[in-house]
Specification:
Structural class: alpha+beta
Shape: elongated
Strand order of the largest sheet: 4-3-2-1-5-6
Number of strands: 19
CATH class of the largest domain: Alpha Beta
Largest sheet: 6 strands, mixed
CATH architecture of the largest domain: Alpha-Beta Complex
Number of domains: 2
Length: about 375
């Protein structure tokens, strides 16, 4: 992996040089991990004029779930407590003879930025912008393999839950059990707080589990994800509890299922992000549910659960091959509940079989 991380740093350095900066300071944790292999708490990565350094408050601990620093990358720990690695790295950049330093202004606080200026007043600080995030959009096969394993873990945890007795249990209890099962099956942990919604809470995006108990006839919507070696995937499914679904539940589910399938089928290299969103949204709009739809149909995933690209009505740009995204349309009807169906897929060309589905738990409307 050392060669992989070195190649990523080289690509970033080329962008910095093209922008007139001989050095860069990366502080956003996911970006540090992408370029260095690990991101110990508070650590920053200096792409220096003469040497790259991972600057940490304390020496990194050997925790496989948090990644391991690239063996070829020197690590510099601060000599005492209370220091700021970003400020220290700015001083190191100046000591290496850099005249300018590109920084992630979207991540740094004003106070931190001022402290960096004060330690090297002659060093010109420029904005690196979203350069690293842009590099992270297209994944290599090693990254996709981590996402694939995470999806398998999430599928397994969800499948086991569906085989258990659900009536009478609380949303909070079910969410905690799912997160425990994720870890039991090898995940670093949940990719995000697990959402379990029952009855009137079902289908609500980002719903935080409550003490409401599962009742017969409820819609039960579950959204969970696993983190594996830092990479995060997502799956969401909706079921009916204990009885045959009512007519309105079948109708709503079929509509959301059709929308989700249309979104999945629209994924292709070169497809406009807004067109994928439109494909998924069209059937639901036509059925009169426009006001009940989420703001976006999906988003990229990777070292963070919500990355670029965004699949939304006003989204700019087009999809590339090897970009993992979610497709997650849903409808929530206040006071009644709703449906959400959510998959993680990798954009692939038609010659390679089209979009690769990572989350394979059935999307049939099951009565549990």
């Amino acid at each position: 992996m050392s060669q992989v991380y070195a190649a990523r740093r080289t690509r970033l350095r080329e962008r910095c040089n093209a922008g007139g900066s001989a050095a860069a300071l990366v502080s956003r944790p996911a970006n540090v991990r992408y370029l260095a292999g690990a991101a110990p708490h508070g650590a920053v990565l200096l792409l220096g004029k003469t040497e790259d350094l991972l600057v940490c408050s304390v020496p990194p601990e050997d925790r496989p779930t948090e990644g391991r620093p690239d063996d070829s990358l020197p690590v510099r720990a601060l000599p005492g407590p209370g220091g700021d690695p970003a400020v220290a790295a700015t001083g190191l950049a100046a000591a290496q003879g850099a005249e300018s330093l590109a920084t992630e202004d979207h991540h740094l606080t004003v106070v931190r930025h001022r402290a960096m200026r004060s330690v090297a007043p002659r060093l010109r600080l420029t904005d690196l912008g979203q350069a690293v995030e842009q590099l992270r959009v297209v994944k290599d096969e090693e990254e996709i393999s981590c996402l694939r394993i995470g999806a398998e873990i999430a599928d397994q945890a969800l499948g086991e839950l569906l085989e258990s007795i659900l009536v009478g249990r609380t949303e909070r209890h079910l969410a905690l059990e799912l997160e425990r099962r994720l870890v039991d099956h090898g995940a670093d942990g949940p990719a995000f707080p697990t959402s379990v919604g029952t009855g009137p809470n079902s289908g609500r995006r980002g719903h935080r589990p409550t003490d409401r108990r599962v009742e017969e006839g409820d819609f039960l919507s579950v959204c969970l994800g696993a983190t594996y070696r830092g990479y995060r995937c997502e799956i969401g499914r909706t079921f009916v509890i204990g009885t045959s679904p009512a007519d309105w539940q079948i109708e709503l589910y079929d509509l959301v299922f059709s929308a989700q399938r249309a979104g999945r089928e629209a994924l292709a290299p070169g497809a406009a992000c807004r067109d994928v969103d439109r494909a998924a949204r069209q059937a639901l709009d036509s059925a009169g549910y426009a006001e009940h739809l989420p703001a976006l149909t999906g988003h990229g995933v990777g070292l963070e659960i919500d990355e670029d690209p965004q699949l939304a009505p006003a989204a700019m740009g087009k999809l590339d091959a090897c970009v993992p995204v979610t497709v997650e349309p849903g409808v929530h009807l206040p006071g009644r509940g709703g449906v959400r169906i959510d998959d993680t897929l990798v954009v692939r060309p038609e010659a390679d079989g089209g979009p690769e589905l990572l989350t394979i738990t059935t999307k049939e409307l099951l009565a549990l």
